[in-house]
């Protein structure tokens, strides 16, 4: 089955974009696809424990619920270490399914191919 790589650059400053990216990631992971979300810029904050909060819009699933579903389905977060460290965040506060990894690690994960989405 095809792998799915979802790139996200925004965090809670644009909760609708975060919600859409998480919905795509959850859909991939829950359908059995190996899935990674590559987080850069402000999106790296989403993987700090207890930061991903709120609901983007009326009728939207909550961001914490989507994060939990993604983790339960085996989805992983690859967090840009340059972006993470430049914000002076603490890597001991990362959620369990997140790890620091940059473009080299992303390309290693993609291997011979993946379906990609960018938000």
Written overview of the protein:
The chain is an alpha/beta fold. Helix 1 runs parallel beside helix 2 (63-72). The protein contains 4 helices and 5 strands, in the order E-H-E-H-E-H-E-H-E. The protein has one domain (4-118): DsrEFH-like (Hypothetical Protein Ychn, Chain: A, 3-Layer(aba) Sandwich), CATH 3.40.1260.10. The mean pLDDT is 96.
Largest sheet: 5 strands, parallel
Helical amount: 25-40%
The N- and C-terminal alpha carbons lie at a distance of 23 Å
Poorly predicted segments:
none
- Number of beta strands: 5
* CATH uppermost class: Alpha Beta
Estimated structural class: alpha/beta
Query: How would you spell out the order of helices and strands?
Result: EHEHEHEHE
Q: Compute the average pLDDT.
A: 96
What is the CATH fold-level name?
A: Hypothetical Protein Ychn, Chain: A
Principal-axis shape equals globular
Domains counted in the coordinates: how many?
1
Radius of gyration from the alpha-carbon trace, in angstroms: 13 Å
DSSP strand (E) fraction? 15-25%
The CATH superfamily turns out to be DsrEFH-like
Architecture, CATH level 2? Answer: 3-Layer(aba) Sandwich
Strands of the largest sheet, in order across it? 4-3-2-1-5
Please name the defining characteristics of this protein.
globular; 119 residues; alpha/beta; five-stranded parallel beta sheet; Hypothetical Protein Ychn, Chain: A; single chain
Q: In a few lines, what is going on in this structure?
A:
It is built from 4 helices and 5 strands.
Spell out the blueprint of helices and strands.
Elements: E1 4-8, H1 15-30, E2 35-39, H2 63-72, E3 76-79, H3 81-86, E4 98-100, H4 103-110, E5 115-118
Parallel strand pairs: 1-2, 1-5, 2-3, 3-4
Helix pairs in contact: 1-2
């Amino acid at each position: 089955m095809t792998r799915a790589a979802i790139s996200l650059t925004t965090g809670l400053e644009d909760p609708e974009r975060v919600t859409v990216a998480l919905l795509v990631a959850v859909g991939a992971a829950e359908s059995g696809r190996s899935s990674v979300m590559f987080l850069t810029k402000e999106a790296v904050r989403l993987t700090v424990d207890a930061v991903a909060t709120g609901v983007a819009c009326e009728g939207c699933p909550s961001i914490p619920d989507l994060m939990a579903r993604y983790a339960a389905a085996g989805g992983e977060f690859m967090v840009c270490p340059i972006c993470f460290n430049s914000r002076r965040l603490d890597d001991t506060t990362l959620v369990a399914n997140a790890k620091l990894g940059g473009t080299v690690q992303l390309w290693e994960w993609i291997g011979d191919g993946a379906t990609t989405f960018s938000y």
